[in-house]
Amino acid sequence: ISVRQCLRVALLFWRIDTGLKRIIRGILSKVMNQRSLVKVPEHQRVRITELGGSIQVRNKLKSMGILVGNELELLKKPLFSPLVIVTSETKLAIGRDMARYIFVVDL
Prior knowledge:
The chain has 107 residues and is of the alpha+beta class. It is 36% helix and 29% strand. It is built from four helices and six strands; from the N terminus they run H-H-E-E-H-E-E-E-H-E. It has helices at 3-13, 18-32, 55-63, 96-99; strands at 35-36, 44-51, 71-76, 83-87, 90-94, 102-106. It has a six-stranded antiparallel β-sheet with strand order 1-6-2-3-4-5. A hairpin with a 2-residue loop joins strand 4 and strand 5 (90-94). Helix 1 (3-13) runs antiparallel to helix 2 (18-32). The longest helix has 15 residues, at 18-32. The model has no long low-confidence stretch (mean pLDDT 84).
């Protein structure tokens, strides 16, 4: 069992406080080279590895077709406007507050 698998199990199944979750998520992101969609440069293709946030945020993202394992491309990243992404031939504009809960890795 790898360190990454141990950390994933800790995030998924343990009921731990928010501070410890942040520490574990930080370690996990370094192991997987995972980052938030907000930190991805324009015109880069990425794969979704995790959806964070509350259950309402995750359900909203899933209803828009943003699912773990899907590939997407960040088309536009204006300074203060929503991000424009393409996922499975569908263009979406998504606010930065929601985009920060989408964790991705490079393809």
